[in-house]
Design goal:
The protein is of the alpha/beta class. It has a single domain, classed as Rossmann fold, CATH 3.40.50.300. Helix content is 57%, strand content 13%. It has eight helices and five strands. The protein has a five-stranded parallel β-sheet, sandwiched between helices. The longest helix has 24 residues. The radius of gyration is 16 Å and the shape is globular. 34% of the residues are buried.
Length: 193
Amino acid sequence: MLIVLTGIDGSGKTTAARALVASARAQGRNALMLSNHAGRRNLSLLADRFGVTLPGRVADIIETGIRLCTVLTNHARSRSFDGLVVMDRHLHCQLALRQANGLRPGRLLRWLLERLPAPDLAVHFDVDPRVAHQRVMARGTDKETLADLLAFRDAYRSLPELAGFVVVDANGTPDEVLAQLKRLIDAKELTRV
């Protein structure tokens, strides 16, 4: 079973993905977490270190290239894995990020989305950007502003692809969000039998 998780930074995607995989393994199931990051954090840390500001278009080209490589690699890995595969982020994240930054979506990302295997379950973590901002600041590793997170959430909500996702309330505790995910998976597995 392939599950894709999306949502703004601080929505709890990675925490939930790790917990879901750990829970499945504790039950004796095969489970694999695959991260489809775009390298934004590392890119911004490098830019800060060298005192440069990358133009938005240049940063997007680098991030999109990294995301494409990770998504394609991880889809290849998921095909040979027998068990639960949880993808933390996907190409939808890059579409939303581009829109939030005022860039056009282009054709490649949507073309690939149409050709890659569809997930068995696509879940979007909807969270209040203020809650997400508090979580991001508590981590101390990102530099997202509240305005960035608001724009990112609005961009996600405007994606036509989001209509095919199940939306979960990610404002709660990690345990509450994990419980929601488990219920969704259980329901999906019942329909597959």
